[in-house]
Amino acid sequence: MQSWIPFLPEQASTVAARVDGLYFYLVGLTLFFTVLIVSVIIFFVVKYRRRAPFEVPRPIAGSIKLETLWSVIPFLIAMSIFVWGASVYFIQYRMPNEAGMTEIYVVGKQWMWKFQHTTGQREINELHVPVGRKVKLTMTTEDVIHSLYFPAFRTKADVVPGRYTNLWFEATKPGRYHIFCAEYCGTNHSGMIGTVVVLSQTDFDNWLSGNANQQSPVAAGQELFTTTLGCASCHNADGSGGRGPALTGLFGKSVQLSGGSTVTADEAYIRESIINPQAQLVMGYQPIMPTFKGQLSEEQLLHLVAYIKSLSPAQSSGLETTAPARSNDPQPGTTTPGASSMDSQRSNPVSVTPPSARQPGNNNSNTAAPSRGNQNRR
Ligand code: HEC
Ligand SMILES: [Cu+2]
Predict the structure, then answer these.
(1) Domains of the chain
(2) pLDDT per position as a tens digit, 268-278
(3) Is the pTM of this model over 0.85?
(4) What are phi and psi of 4, to 5 degrees?
């Protein structure tokens, strides 16, 4: 299809052909009706042209048969688009709940894409993935809304401040394909591009081992948890409880909240528990956990989430990309972290976070707007 008309990017994922099929159906329908209507217009213009200066046309009383027909046919056509579209949508956006998916963490930022593999390898504006394996992306952004778009895979999803979204794909052809940001995000939006490099499984394994000297997200999260942030003074590092609840087996479990409601502990819930612990109090516990808002970068938060997930045997969450976040905080990206960390000290009788725990890279957390000033930070 690609070769004779350079109309669409290469089809390089399992959903690409389905998306294109739907697309061609829509284009075909549009062409068919355009041609039909234009021909009928021309035909009628000629056939019913005025032949005499004072000609009066014959009145038409209407036709039930005709009216039913021109209601029912468009209805069926519209429904066929709906059913077909919905089925492709669900295949594309429902996260396959499979063990052994390649997991990748994504943080968008004005104006770059940062990727991290579960084995620790970091990449900027370049992403290496294996062919023929399902890849799950867990994504967020440090500043404004961006949208991660892989044209050759026919898939894209927004990344939203304060929220995790997910995307999956399975590449079918080794090669190099475009990555775009598909959401206008400021001056250099058009430069927020990259390359996804699809490798055979052996090449991918080689690539991974060639870049293997980096700390994995789980290890980084564990370090934050036990030493840097002192979470372990309340939640024991082995996962058993202390002043705070046990975190072993938390991920995927449903949690009883103090209001009596329950919530499933997914990535968004864990993030919220760290950023805004008072928002959803676990039943039977006092609100003594300090907020860590403004003290952690999105990457560090992802590392903590990865570590807490690793304390649970079943890893895949089945989150959908469109799952709404439960955040009570409408725009965490634009709050003033300095002010909230002052709050945290007031509402926090047992502050266990020494000032030195702040990462040097995060000192900017005292400035209000994270976007403009720090674009060269990392
Ligand atoms: C001062 C003690 C304390 C510290 C320090 C602390 N927590 Fe907590 N944490 C608690 C308490 C108490 C709760 C239960 C009440 C609540 O939900 O806020 C809790 C709840 C949680 C929950 C939700 C648990 C569940 O069962 O739903 C998570 C996740 C969590 N903490 C992670 C962390 C992380 C990560 C850190 C370090 C960045 C941390 N905590 C630091 C006391 C603490
Ligand atoms: Cu962008």
Answers:
(1) 16-93 (no CATH), 102-210 (2.60.40.420), 241-352 (1.10.760.10)
(2) 889 988 988 88
(3) no
(4) -85, -20
